Amino acid sequence: xxxxxxxxxxxxxxxxxxxxxxxxxxxxxxxxxxxxxxxxxxxxxxxxxxxxxxxxxxxxxxxxxxxxxxxxxxxxxxxxxxxxxxxxxxxxxxxxxxxxxxxxxxxxxxxxxxxxxxxxxxxxxxxxxxxxxxxxxxxxxxxxxxxxxxxxxxxxxxxxxxxx
Length: 164
What we know:
164 residues
């Protein structure tokens, strides 16, 4: 959905498969999204693992060509885990996260992945709502999993989607 007077039409975003050359761009997006962001070295290590893959969405060159968001997943046998999803603040609430997740689910389905897992901060109500709309169900809680600003701790909900 595009709001009036903006070019934020998710359908216009370009899509790229992630590789190690994206490490710096992913770190930059992650830093805009999370208080304890991963570094380009963290992303480089992950992207050099053959079981890790993902997608990046980018604005059309006519709109600046800026990176908008990404999803990173790790597979093992017939299971996969979403390691992280990040969308730049400018593009949040425009359907970018939904598009990223739908596209990665399509890829995992083609690869015969049976179960997809993720962890989400129990206070991130908008993300939880999105995951539920995409048929994820809560299966566990990891207590004190996240360290928040100021050292507070937050639980992670472990969610699973079967029959990806």
